[in-house]
Every structure is written in C-alpha cells, then in structure tokens.
Write a structure and sequence with these properties.
Layout lengths: L7 E5 L26 H12 L3 E6 L6 E5 L5 H10 L9 E5 L2 E2 L17 E6 L4 H15 L5 H5 L9 H5 L12 H4 L36 E6 L7 H4 L3 E9 L4 E7 L2 E5 L20 H8 L1 H16 L2 H4 L10 E2 L8 H7 L17 H9 L6 H30 L16 E4 L2 E5 L12 H22 L4 E3 L2 E6 L2 E7 L9 H4 E3 L12 H14 L4 E4 L5 E4 L6 E4 L5 E4 L21 H5 L15 H35 L4 H11 L5 H9 L1 H11 L9 H18 L27 H22 L7 H18 L6 H13 L11 H9 L1 H4 L16 H16 L8 H8 L3 H12 L1 E4 L18 E4 L2 E4 L5 H15 L3 H19 L4 H16 L3 H18 L5 H16 L3 H19 L4 H16 L3 H19 L4 H16 L3 H19 L4 H30 L15 H11 L2 E5 L2 H18 L24
Parallel strand pairs: 2-6, 11-22, 14-21
Antiparallel strand pairs: 1-25, 2-3, 4-5, 4-6, 7-8, 8-9, 9-10, 12-13, 13-16, 15-16, 15-24, 17-20, 18-19, 20-21, 22-23
Helix pairs in contact: 8-9, 12-13, 13-32, 18-19, 18-21, 18-22, 21-22, 24-28, 24-30, 25-28, 31-32, 32-33, 33-34, 34-35, 35-36, 36-37, 37-38, 37-42, 38-39, 39-40, 40-41
Keywords: Cytoplasm, RNA-binding
Family: Belongs to the CLU family.
GO molecular function, one term: mRNA binding
Length: 1250
C-alpha cells in the first residue's frame, strides 16, 4: 500500500446505504449496562482472542504428517471436522486424537490441553465402532459420494443451496487468471452477449437461470449403497460384534453384503435371500468403508479419488451448509437415485448428528432459554452466548419447518383428535403446532379467520422485538411461522407445565379475553418496564370487568405465565406495536386531513393492522428533530426579545413578531405545533421582559424549562422535562376501557396515533414506489392460499398447474385435467378423505377459470390494498403496466413455495395452456423466524463504516476485519451479514489499491449471496456487478463481461429492462465493451442507459449528463465527431445549468468539447484533401486509438460511486477537520446554527432490508 504522504486517498460515495443491515435494538437493557465497557476495551479483547494461533502436526494412519493451523479457542472436535473434510483423511470418522498417548476430549478447548503447543504432534488413532458411530460413518461416506451432486440443493434439504458463480469465472479469479499481454489478447475475447441480453430484446428465456455446471456431471462410484434387509443383527451375531449390514452393488455389477462391526467393515457371505453372516474369503477387514470398497471395485477407487479431488477444488463457500434452508423455485428433472440415508431420514426425526438414537428428542424450550441465560459480562462470554443462541435458533427453525410440513401432510396425530380438523393442535418433537384458523371464535371481534391468519406474524414480530431488547429474566417462546400448502402453522416451544393446567390458572399478567378480565403482577411490571423505552411502549392503566384499575406495561393481550421452571414467560405479543388507524375506522374519531384526503380510514378485513417497528423508529426520529427545532425557535425568540429590550422596550412586541415569522418552520407539523402553542410562547416572551432577566438568573432557567416543556407538549412527549415518545398499544382496542383519571393522557395518546398514521401516508409512503407486480402477486397469493386448502394431496400438482395457467397463460379456456381413474376413486372414498386442515369440496378447485381468477385478483387489490386494477386478464395487465409474465411467475412461485421444471414456457399461446402437472416439481414451505443478531460484531461493523465515511480508511478496514472475525465466530461461515461485511471489505481493498484481495473478498460475497439469499436475489445481482468491476481492474476483461451479462440476465428476469438500476448496469457493460473496442455493441448499452436515466431522473439530471459524456466518448472512438459533439454539448449544458460554469465538471466538459472540435476539424481537412487530390493526396495519418484501460476504469469508478482524489497530507488533515466540523453541526443542539436549512426529510433514514 502506498505511504500516507501525497498518496492517493479515496472518498467513498454514499455506499453506506447498501451496507446497512437491519439492526435489532442494540441497547441491551437490564444486564447490559456493564456489557459494553467502551470501544477500546472491546478492541483489546478482540485482539486477545484472534491473534494467538499456532501450528500442530497431525499424523494419520497411512499418510505423511502434515501441519495444521489452529486457534486456542477451537475445540478438539473442530480438528475432527477438518480431518473429515481433507482429501487424504476424509474417509475416517471414528477416531480419537492423541497427544503423547493421551486421548483428547472432543469438547475440550485447545488452550485447556496441557502440553499442547506450537509443533506438537497429534496422532489420529482408529477407535472401535458403535451402532451410532457406524451410522455416522455410512452417512459421511454417502455425503462424500454425493458431494458434487446438486440434487439436495434443488430438493431444499440439509441446508444445501445453489451457486453458479464458478460457471462464469472458470476458476479464473485471483492471481492465476491475470492476463499477461493485455493488448494482444483483446481480439481473442468473445464479447458478444447472448441475443436475449441485448437492450430491447423481448425474449425472456428461463433455462439460462441455471446454467449447466460441468463439475456436476455425475462421477458414479457405486450403483447401490443401502441398508440390508437383514438388519438388525440377531443376538448371537451382536455377541460377535456385528452392528449392522449393508448391501452394495458395484459399478462392475458385483453384488456384495458387508458387515459393519466394532472393528470395522468386511465382506460377509449373505445374499439377497440367504443370511450367512460369516466373513467371506478374503474378507478385506478395513476400518473405513471407503478402503474396503476401493479394494473390491477398481471403478470405485478411480472415481472416488477423482471425485474428492474435484470436491476439495471447489470453493468452500460452495459447499458449506447455510444456517437456514434456501429453496429454489426452478429445478431441472433430476433422476431419483436410491439413497439409504435419505430413506432412513424420512422416517426418523433426525435433526443433526446427535439424533441417531431413535426416540431421543431435544427439549427445545430448555435449550432456547438456557442459551439466553449464559453470561454476557465480557466479549468472549457474549460471543459464546450469541453463538449458542444462533445455533439453537437455526436448529429450531429447521425442526419446526419439518414438523409443520408433517402436520399438514397428515403425518402427525393431533392432541385433540375428536375436534374438527381446523381446530386441531399437535405436538411433535417437543414443539407445539397450531393452525391459523379462528378456533372457538377467539378472534370474532377482530376479523375471524383473517385475524387468526395475521396474528401469528404480528406475534413473531413481537417475539423478535422483545428478543432483541434482551432483558435478563424475561423469556419469550421459540416461534416459527410456516405457510405450507395454503395453511399457516405456528410452531412454538412449550412452556414447562403449561399442558397440565388450564390457561386461566396460568396467566398472572394480562388478559385471556381481550381485556374483559385483566390481571397484573409486580415482577412482570418490573421486567416489562425495562423494555418500555426501547420498544416505545407506554406504562398505562386499564379497567378490569370489576372496574378496578390495573397497571400494564404492554398490550392487554400480552400474557405473563410463570412456567414450572420458575421462568417468567410472555406470549401472545401480537399487539406489541400500535395499530395503523388508516385501516381501523373508529366511531366518532376523525383522522388528520392528510389521511382523509387519500380516502382513509379504510375498512380492513381484520383489526390487527399495526405500524411496523421501523416506522415507529422513523416517526420518533422525525418528532425528535421537530422537538429540537421548536426549542431552537423559542430560544431565538427569547434572544431577539432580549436584544430589543436593550435598544428600546417599546419595540419589543414587533421584534418578537418578526422573530417568530422568520423562524417559522417549513414543516407542516412544526407550524401546526407552533400555532397550538402560541400562548406558552407568549408567556416565555413576557418572562424574558422582566427587569430581573439578567443572564444566569432563576428566571432564565425557568424560561428554558418552559421552552422544553412547550416543545415536549407540542411533539407529544410523555415527559415534561425531556423528549420521550411512547405509545399505548391498547388505544382503540375493542373491549379495553381506561380509568377516568387518565382521560387527558388517553386523549394525547389518541392524537399521537393519529399523527403516526398521518406521518406514514404523508412522509414515508411518498418516498416509495408502488410495485404493481408485487401487488398483483400478493393478491394472487391470498387467493391461492384458500384455493389450495380444498385440494387433496393426490391432486396437488394438477391443481397448482391449473392455477398458474389461469393466472399467466393467454389461453382463455384453461381446463383442469384429472385422470379418469382418480375421479372414480374419489367418489368411492369421499367419506374418508376430509382430514386435511381446512379441506372442503375436494374438486372445487378444478372449476376455476382465468376470467374468474383475474376478477378475484382485481377485487382483492381493491378490498385489501385499496388499489384499482383496471384489467380483467393477464395480457391486459402485462400491456398496461409494462410487466413480464416470467417476473410474475417468479414472484408467485417464491411467495407460495412452488417449484417448477426449468424449461421454456409458452405463456402467449392462445391454443394451449403453458403448464402441465408434470411441470410442477414440488411445493416448499415459506418460513418466517427470528434472526438472532451478533451485537458486538455489528457495533464493530458500524464503527468501521463510520471511520470509512470520515476518510480513515485503514482504521475502518481494521474494524471491518474485526467485525468479520466476530460475525464468523457467532454465525459460522455463512450469513447475510457476513456478506455485507465482505462486500465493504472488498470495496476498501479496491480503493486502497489491493485488487487481488478485493477480488478474493468480493468472490466470497457473491458466493455467499447466491447461497444464503438466492441466485437471482437483487443483492446477488449487485454483488455480481461489484465483482465485474474488480475483475476489470485486475485485467480479467472477458470474466468481467461474463459477470455483467449474467447480472443483466438476472435483472431482466427479476424486474425487466424498465428499471432505474438497469442504467447503472448498462453503463458498466457499455464501458467495458468500449474498453475492448466493441463500439457498436457498447453504444447499444450506453444509449439504453441514457434513455433510462432520462426517464427516471429527468433530462436535466447529472446522471444524464454523465451518460451523454460516456456516449460521446464512444462516438469519438468511432470518429463520428458530429454525434460525439452533439452528446457532449447536451452534457455541458446540463452541467452549466446545474452546477455553474466555474464547477470542475463543467470545465472538464468544456475542455472535452474543444478537443472534439479539433478532432472534427482535423478529420474534415483530411477528407477535403482526399476529395481535392484523389489518391495522390499527401495526408497525415489520423490517430484513432482505443481508449486506455486506465481511462475506462476511471469512468467505471465514477459511475459506481468510487472517487479517487489525490491528496497531500495537508489536504487530508483539512478534509478530516471539515468532516468533523460537519458532524458537530449535525449533532442535536447545534441545529440553531443552520436552522433555515433544516428540512425535516428522512428519505435517507429508511432501513434497507439487506
């Protein structure tokens, strides 16, 4: 890296927005006061943890000793995992590690092992098998055989997911791929994009979404590996050490039976129909199944070796399991191979390697709560605690998903089997499952089934919020909400003792009947009080049935139950956040005019619509700015009055009026607040006019108190001395009554809720664009949910394909096809069938028509979203709103869990339907769960971002690296937040000139984004664009183009060409093509970018000026100077009008115009010479050179928001001082200085969902 003096330093241009990670409330109330001793202490702790790795030697049987880098914090078990992954030791699972003849405990940390130090030799010693170990070994061998097979990723099992980056890079990244002779190789690059990627193409093929990966071609090692029918061994064979039997067919068609014994694996004499367990001759006893198979099958030996070579060559991020399952909405037709492990898993409740003993289930509630109780005083403790919490949560989400699917598929017995199916409840694997229907009219007042369907997600949001505040001693239930086959299932961990008693006896806080009977409890009030400030929930009183006042610090529905384990649990958190009055008409209550003007309030189908936590945060921040502004206005009025008094007391009144009129805020809320508070303001000014009003006197202190009091009242603060906004979640809850002495408070709270509703429609929503395709697919999802509830399992694929035909196919007469024999059997078995939750008439789905479906979509848009769609079929919608059928298909499939066959579909045929039932491959669950956060890592990440934005790149880089270490510590290697960390690191590496390191980090970011978010997720597309930039900078031009073409294909698939982000992508492609002298192609992309920028940013935008300049550069390279001049003039005019003639950009454009004019004149002279003198003309050779890579890279940096500025040390100091000055100005309390400029816009505060 260059030295500091005179070096190139960089300013990053607004990348913070992209790297924002949805942050849970990080202030840990209660136990966390001592948990954050300050950044410096934290940094030292991290260094202690991270910096003391050492190397040990490993000696395995039959291999040379090798070195392994380990860290003192690792457990011995982690070395086991490394050995099971290495190419030369991967076939071993049942071994111990020994140091000087002593066996190491698998769960011991390396630092606790006596005598283990740098250079120690650890021996791998084979151990006797048990049934459990033999099962683990067979499972591991099967995993190795399937390690390149993508079928688990397509089938959405075992946290496998897809990644296609390697198809486009050909392992071309890093130093090895650097182009040696850039100039001579340019011609060899094939730059032509596929036809469907070109601007203007209407073709949207589906097949390229999952390109063929040559590594996935099957390297078959065995024909069959399965459990033998002779299992389990009879008693006499157990006494000889037999554990289980395997049946194997080799590639050479040899059928063999193998015994797994305590000593290892050997061939026995059994056949398919005769049991003869004695060892065959020769028996080939080996400790590893792989060694045995290598001895009996040459094809196995050859292919297994090749397979493992390929496996270890893959990037680790392509094969590490993700923390939560990611499903693919498309898949090719995969052959269904025999698989003993999969077959066994289907009929056991396996959830991790610890569960091979049948009947052993985990106590989820105990695990979830115990991890919360772990110590958190210092960083190592907090890391351990957060890692444990995260691991248990991801295991619980997987178990809950599997259980929910089993419930809906009818594979779990209900605990109340006599009840109607929709009212049934289930327990499986220590998890409680309930269905999203209104049982016993519980939600009748709130909207029946619609409310029962909305309540679980509201409850989950509450669990997420309370979990994030993380108060010691307050417990929530593990909660997962699963939508599967049209049913919503809530999975919860079970409070100890809850099933043995009635709910009425258990609840000691809150209400079980929506506020009729209400109870409270001092311990709950004490615990919930700690959550009150971070969650903005107001402490309030309600009236019980007996008209007694009861104190609460949550909504009445929130129930407190002390479990048999003595823990204080809260559940039913569906009203944690206040209601959205725009969707809650209340008698005799009027909404603010901003809402009424837009037609609110609307009658919604349920009464549980509530404000999101992000909105509450934004509203409170908005009010805080308002509070500061009002206090500043009043202080200025006082100041003005004081000055006037010094000149002449008589003029004071008029001076005051002037002061108030000049300082009147532009914000409608603020002006409303100042009007309502004219009297107190008057009092302030009168007080300042008294003779005693000398600086520092009591009166002045009193007046400043009054200023705060007035500002508090104006913004609705619950305190009179400081800014503190909290909401009463029970306002407007049906059936809840409040004591009369709280009437004034309740009135204030009602006003606050109305203001919140107005803030949502007047400040937040205008900064969002309505996504028509999102709206349509959500409506279709609502209809699909009820449609599927009436479908029995055997007709599922026919029903799904029929729905998709009605939704997307142009064929007007879509008819459902039911095989005749199924129709017959259905009539016979009508009585037995109706056991699927919510099932009605099993064939009603078949009568749906496209016309009826679209009529329902239109009415759903009107009733649910208050949006008028004026279309009665898919083709009209596509035409009117410029949508794409492929995008609608992707959206509906992802939202409902449908997986379809990847092939080209003809949606537009008017003669036949697009889908058949063979095209529907699967239906997956859609899962919502809590994402526990790595709080320390997140603080480091934020500090790093802040440092970078202040220009301290090196310090920022160090902090981000520490954040990465901590994220890995908590989440493991794969997580969406690690992805954001890697992206920022790559950007910093790039800015600081380390291109190979930038490539390496960004490659990881792309792979991780594909794996944890999905191959065509918008974030993944962004990651591809960043990687292309770094490839270009590293001289890998053809790879850069391939990556950009992939990004453009994905973007066309996800949102089509008409999208503001497409302009940036096309500018990138156009620039790279310009660099490789493909001028005509380059122009197609750059002119498209220009058109899109003009459409979305207006023809006078600076983005448009830059687009004109890029187009002009290509025309110059083509020697078409007239066009080049025309475009550059457009750009120059925009710069001149927007930033003035003296601005650097305007001057650059002016210079470039002169240069183009000279070029044009020179060309004209030459042409004239040729016309005049014909072939004898003596002409100067014209130099049309290709643009230099440096100039192309400079433009690429500009459009991607990276600006390099050469700075001297002095400039750098000035820059930092300026940054600090601006930060000071932005701090609360400094607002008086730049009051007029303080427009209260919060556009940039919107959380980005990463």
């Amino acid at each position: 890296m260059p030295g500091p003096a005179g070096a190139n330093k960089a300013v990053m241009n607004g990348d913070g927005g992209h790297d924002h990670i949805e942050e849970a409330e990080s202030k840990q109330e209660g136990g966390a006061g001592d948990a954050d001793p300050g950044d410096e202490a934290n940094e030292q702790e991290v260094i202690v943890i991270q910096d003391t790795g050492f190397t040990v030697k490993i000696q395995a049987p039959g291999t040379e000793p090798f070195d392994l880098q380990v860290s003192p914090q690792e457990m011995v078990q982690e070395i086991h995992q490394v050995l099971m992954d290495r190419e030369d030791t991967c076939h071993r699972t049942c071994f111990s590690l020994q140091l000087d003849g002593n066996v190491l405990d698998s769960f011991a940390e390396l630092k606790s092992i006596e005598g283990l130090q740098e250079g120690s030799l650890l021996k791998v010693v084979e151990e006797p098998y048990t049934v459990r170990e033999a099962r683990i070994h067979v499972r591991h061998v099967r995993d190795l055989l399937k390690s390149l097979d993508p079928s688990d990723a397509y089938n959405g099992v075992d946290c496998n997911s897809l990644s296609f980056l390697s198809v486009f890079t050909d392992g071309d990244l890093g130093e090895s791929g650097k182009r040696k002779k850039k100039g001579s190789e340019l011609e060899q690059i094939d730059c032509t994009p596929p036809e469907h990627i070109l601007p203007g193409s209407k073709d949207r093929p589906l097949v390229p979404l999952q390109p063929t990966n040559k590594d996935w071609k099957p390297l078959q090692c065995l024909k069959v590996l399965t459990m033998s029918g002779w299992n389990p061994p009879p008693g006499n064979r157990k006494m000889h050490g037999d554990l289980m039997y395997l049946y194997i067919v080799t590639m050479e068609e040899r059928h063999v039976s193998i015994t797994a014994s305590t000593r290892g694996f050997y061939l026995n004499q059994s056949t398919t129909y005769t049991f003869s367990p004695k060892p065959a001759n020769p028996s080939f006893l080996t400790h590893s199944l792989v060694e045995l198979l290598s001895q009996i099958s040459p094809a196995f030996k050859k292919n297994f070796t090749a397979l493992q070579k390929k496996r270890v060559q893959r990037h680790p991020f392509e094969r590490i399991a993700t923390p939560f399952q990611v499903y693919s909405w498309t898949a090719p037709q995969i052959d269904h191979a025999m698989d003993c492990v999969r077959a066994e898993d289907a009929y056991t409740s396996r959830l991790g390697y610890e569960e091979h003993i049948p009947g052993q289930t985990r106590d989820w509630n105990e695990e979830l709560q115990t991890t919360r109780e772990l110590a958190r005083k210092n960083l190592p403790e907090r890391l351990l605690r957060e890692r444990a919490i995260f691991k248990v949560h991801s295991d619980f989400a997987a178990a809950a998903t599997r259980g929910a699917m089993a419930v809906i598929d009818g594979n779990v017995m209900a605990i109340n089997p006599g009840e109607e199916t929709r009212m049934q409840m289930f327990i499986w694997n220590n998890i409680f499952f309930s269905l999203g229907f209104d049982v016993k009219d519980h939600y009748r007042e709130l909207g029946g089934d619609a409310a029962a369907h909305a309540a679980p997600t509201n409850d989950l949001n509450g669990v997420r919020a309370y979990g994030a505040v993380d108060v010691e001693g307050l417990y929530t239930l593990g909660t997962v909400v699963v939508d599967y086959r049209g049913n919503r299932v809530t999975a919860q961990s079970i409070i100890p003792g809850i099933l043995e008693r009635e709910q009425e006896q258990s609840v000691i806080y809150g209400s079980i009947d929506f506020g009729k009977t209400v109870v409270s409890h001092p311990k709950y009030l004490e615990l919930l009080d700690k959550t009150s400030r971070p969650l903005k929930v107001q402490h309030h009183a309600v009236l019980s049935e007996k008209n007694e006042s009861v104190d609460l610090c949550s909504s009445v529905e929130c129930k407190g139950i002390i479990g048999n384990d003595g823990r204080h649990y809260i559940l039913d958190l569906l009203r944690t956040f206040p209601p959205d009055l725009n969707f809650l008409p209340v008698e005799d209550e009027e909404l603010p005019p901003e809402c009424q003007k837009l037609g609110f309030p609307c009658q919604h189908r349920h009464r549980l619509a509530c404000l999101r936590q992000e909105l509450i945060e934004a509203f409170v921040e908005h009010r805080y700015l308002l509070f500061m502004k009002m206090a500043a206005i009043q202080l200025m009025q006082q100041k003005a009055n004081k000055e006037n008094k010094a000149t002449a007391l008589t003029n004071s009144a008029s001076a005051e009026m002037t002061a108030s009129s000049t300082a009147a805020p532009k914000d409608p809320e603020a002006s409303k607040a100042t009007q309502t508070n004219s009297e107190p303001t008057q009092t302030v000014s009168e007080a300042t006019q008294t003779p005693a009003s000398q600086p520092g006197t009591t009166t002045e202190i009193t007046t400043s108190r009054e200023v705060v009091l007035n500002a508090c009242k104006a913004v609705g603060s619950i305190s009179n001395t400081s800014f503190d906004i909290r909401f009463n979640p029970d306002i407007y809850s049906p059936g809840v009554r409040f004591p009369e002495d709280c009437a004034e408070d309740i009135q204030k709270q009602k006003q606050l809720l109305k203001d919140g509703a107005a803030f949502l429609v007047s400040c937040q929503i205008p900064s969002l664009r309505i996504g028509i395709s999102e709206l349509i697919t959500r409506c279709a999802k609502h209809i699909f949910k009820t449609y599927l509830q009436g479908v029995e399992l055997s007709a599922l694929s026919a029903a799904v394909s029929h729905f998709l035909n009605c939704f997307l196919s142009s064929f007007p007469d879509a008819v459902a096809h039911l095989p005749a024999d199924e129709l017959v059997s259905r009539r016979k078995n009508r009585k037995r069938r109706n056991r699927v939750p919510g099932a009605g008439d099993n064939t009603a789905w078949a009568s749906l028509t496209p016309t009826e479906l679209w009529k329902n979509v239109v009415s759903e848009a009107q009733s649910y979203y208050n949006f008028t769609l004026q279309c009665d079929n898919v083709d009209l919608v596509v035409e009117k709103y410029g949508l794409q059928k492929i995008t609608l298909l992707r959206e509906i499939s992802i939202k409902t869990g449908i997986q379809i066959l990847i092939k080209e579909y003809n949606f537009d045929s008017r003669h036949k339907t697009a889908f058949t039932e063979e095209d529907i491959l699967n239906i997956f669950p859609v899962v919502k769960h809590v994402n526990p956060k790595a709080s320390d890592a997140f603080h480091f990440f934020q500090s790093g971002q802040a440092k970078v934005q202040q220009g301290f790149l090196k310090e920022g880089c160090e902090l981000i690296n520490e954040a990465l270490n901590l994220f890995n510590n908590v989440y493991g290697a794969m997580h969406v937040e690690i992805c954001a960390c890697l992206r920022l690191l790559a950007r910093l590496n790039y800015i600081m000139g380390d291109h190979p390191e930038a490539l390496s980090n960004q490659q990881k970011a792309v792979l991780m984004s594909e794996r944890v978010l999905g191959i065509e997720h918008p974030n993944t597309i962004q990651e591809y664009i960043h990687l292309a930039l770094y490839c270009f900078a590293n001289g890998q031009l053809s790879t850069a183009l391939k990556l950009l073409y992939r990004a453009r294909y994905l973007m066309l698939m996800v949102c089509g060409e008409d999208h503001p982000e497409m302009a940036l992508l096309d500018s990138n492609i156009g620039l790279v093509l310009h660099g490789v002298m493909e001028y005509d192609l380059s122009l197609r992309f750059l002119e498209n970018a220009l058109a899109i920028n003009s459409k979305y940013h207006g023809p006078r935008s600076l983005k448009v000026a830059l687009s004109h300049h890029l187009v002009a550069r290509v025309y110059e390279s083509k020697a078409e100077f007239r066009s080049a001049l025309q475009h550059e003039k457009e750009g120059y005019t925009i710069y001149k009008n927007q930033v003035g003639e003296s601005h650097e950009k305007t001057k650059e454009s002016s210079e470039y115009l002169k240069h183009l004019t000279q070029q044009a004149v020179a060309l004209q002279r030459t042409m004239n010479e040729i016309y005049k003198n014909g072939s004898s003309a003596s002409i100067m050779p014209l130099k049309f050179t290709a643009p230099s890579m440096a100039s192309v890279l400079e433009q690429l940096n500009i459009i991607n928001g990276i600006i390099f500025i050469p700075l001297s040390q002095k400039d750098l100091e000035n820059l930092k001082a300026e940054v600090q000055r601006r930060q000071m100005l932005q701090e609360p309390g400094k607002i008086e200085e730049n009051q007029e400029d303080c427009l209260l816009e919060l556009d940039d505060k919107l959380p980005v969902d990463d």
